[in-house]
Amino acid sequence: MGCVFKFLILASVFLSLGQSTLAEDWGSKSGREQALEELKDFDPSVRRGALARLAETGVDEDVPYMLRLLRDDNFSVRGMADQAITGLWLRLDNLSAKRLFVKAIGALQSGQAKQAIVHLDAVIEAEPSFSEAWNKRGDAWLRLDDLDRALADYEVALKLNPYHYGVMQSCASIWMERSQARKAYNYLSQAIAINPNLDHLIPVIVDLEERLENDRI
Question: How high is the pLDDT of residue 166?
Fold first, then answer.
C-alpha cells in the first residue's frame, strides 16, 4: 500500500539533499532561464542536462515545463524528467528542517514510522508549505494503518502540489482499500494523465473501469 515507486523517491532524497549541489554553479537566474530554454533543444543529452540543473535550481513555476518532458520521444529524457521533478519537489533550503527531514526518511526506511512522524511534525511546523513533509507523514500514518490521518496529510500535500502523481497513487490505494472504486479511479486517472509513463497503472484503471461499468448495469 502507499505510493508506487517509493525507491525512486527515496533515492532522490539523497540526491536533492546532499551537501553539495549543482545550484552552486547554476544558481543565477540566467542559468535557470537557460536550462528552461534547453528543455526544447533538439539534442536529448542537452534536454537531460537541463532537467538535472532544474532539479537543483528550478522553482515551482518550472514544473509544468518539466512535466512536458515526461512525454518526450527519448526514453532516457523521460526517465530524467521523472527524477528531476521529484528532486525539485524534495528540495528544502531550511538547513535545520532539512536535517530533520533526512532523519524522518531514515526512520521510515528502518520501519520506525512513529519516530518519522515526530521528525516530520517538526519539519511541518518549520516549513508548512513543504509538500513532501506532508506526503511522507502520510506514508508514515499509512505504515501505522491510520488511513484517515494518512489521507488527510496526502490531501494537504496535493493542495500544496497539485501535480504530485505519487501522492495521487497513495490516495488511490487508500480508496481501493475502502472499496471506493470511483474515487480510486479518479486519482489514478489524474496521475497517469500527468505522467503517462505509469504503465503499471493501466491494468488497475481498466479493472476499476469494469467495476464501475458493472455497477451501472
Answer: 98
What's CA 215's distance to the chain center, in Å? Answer: 32
In the chain, what is the straight-line distance between the N-terminal and C-terminal CA atoms, in Å? 30
User: CATH number of 18-90: 3.40.50.1950, 3.40.50.920, 1.20.1250.20, 1.25.10.10?
Assistant: 1.25.10.10
What's the pLDDT tens digit per position in 94-105?
999 999 999 999
Q: What is the pTM of this model?
A: 0.84
Chain centroid to CA 174: how far? Answer: 17
Q: What angle do CA 47, 20, 42 make, to 5 degrees?
A: 5
How deeply is 64 buried, as exposed, middle or buried, from its count of CB atoms within 10 A (0-12, 13-18, 19+)? exposed
Angstrom distance (rounded) from CA 46 to CA 61: 21
Q: What does residue 62 show for φ and ψ, rounded to 5 degrees?
A: -85, -15
